[in-house]
User: What shape does this take?
Amino acid sequence: MHRKRDRLIVFLLDFAGIELAFFLAFFLRFRLHIVSTIFSPSVVSYIMPSIYVSAFFLLLFAFFGLYDRPNWVISSLDEAFSVFKAISLGVLIIAVLFTDLSNLISLQRVVLYMFWAGSFIITMLFRTIYRKLILSAHRYGKLLIPTLIIGDTEKAERIKKELENFPVLGYNIVSVIPYKSGTDGEDDRLEDLPKIIQKFKIEEIILAISTRNHEEILKIMDKCGDADVSFKVVPDMYDLIAGQKQISIFGAPLVELFSEPLNPFQKIMKRAMDIVVSFFALILSLPIFLVLLVAIPLDSPGPVFYKQLRVGKRGKLFWLYKFRTMYNDAERMTGPVWAKKDDPRITRLGRFLRKMRIDEIPQFLNVLRGDMSLVGPRPEREFFVNELKNKIPLYTKRLLVKPGLTGWAQIKHKYDASLDDVAEKLKYDFYYIENMSILMDIKILLRTVLVVLSGKGAH
Assistant: This one.
């Protein structure tokens, strides 16, 4: 709640700052006549253009990550540099598109220079005032972030004391839950984490656990369910300096765990790309739907479509849709098993559909619904997830992002046929999760098209 509030307030302040800079430039240009002019337009005629300009600059601010974190947790210098880059790029684009580049001191360019300086100064002024107000509120115990600390009792208490000595950081330590690595926890409250989070409106959880204990960290994250909380851990170097009398949390910074590399603007872009591409893909594939409505039942008696429960982001189950490529009730005798090369359960038509990945076209519906994304780790069945997370360290990390129709692993690796295949493919999934970006998604989509056209959709 606090993070969303901070983003909204800073967003509105930025909008107000850019609007004010726009009309200040207008006032200096047409009312004070700093630059001579032969006409004086109405201010009303500039209201809509000012809104368009402000929206454009807010998008640039989001692109430069200015809404990723509360502005009071980053340095003023870093913030000012990012604001300057965003405004400079925006002004440059406007200059190229709408002004006379042949004259650096033309009437239009002078007004643009005024707006450039004004928008930077006013925006930073508003952001600085808001920063000081928030930090001042923190000093008086107001607007603090409800926080939970979980971990070794002694280490957790040291962290709690350190954070309470620096109220400016904005943490309200609601409780400390003891947890000893290698056990199921020393406190029954660990089993009630979702209830505790809901009751006290916890927004952040600090883990006083060694960053090397990946499985322990993931176990605690899993117990939190779908709660909208961020996780932070104190680096192991904290242990090296914790014995010193004068210790600052700034000296051992809190590191956010498994934070999504996409900022809010990039998330919107990714979702927009999912919707647009999926919509047109379904429209273009309508002839394929019509042909397969007849061909699949003729090749093998049974339904045209096959649906199966898969595990999505943070363990949420959803129905995944495909064109049926196996004989009806193929797993009735065997139970859940991986598809293999020359699998006898696959029909003649099914082999072709799998090779060309045509069987996955209905999953564009899953993408439109928001269950999946175009690009991401492939969703697995719950049976396999429960089996694999006990055998492969960090397997559940792939559940921290939305599953995809295709992914880095799909263009680099073959279909899973064994536990070793899954472990190998997991490396590609982790690489994508740590490096995901809009450009990488586009690259994977283009590579997927090449894989399909080359007939290597299923190795």
Remarks:
- Residues 2-139 form one domain.
- The first strand starts at residue 145 and ends at 151.
- The CA atoms of residues 25 and 114 lie 6 Å apart.
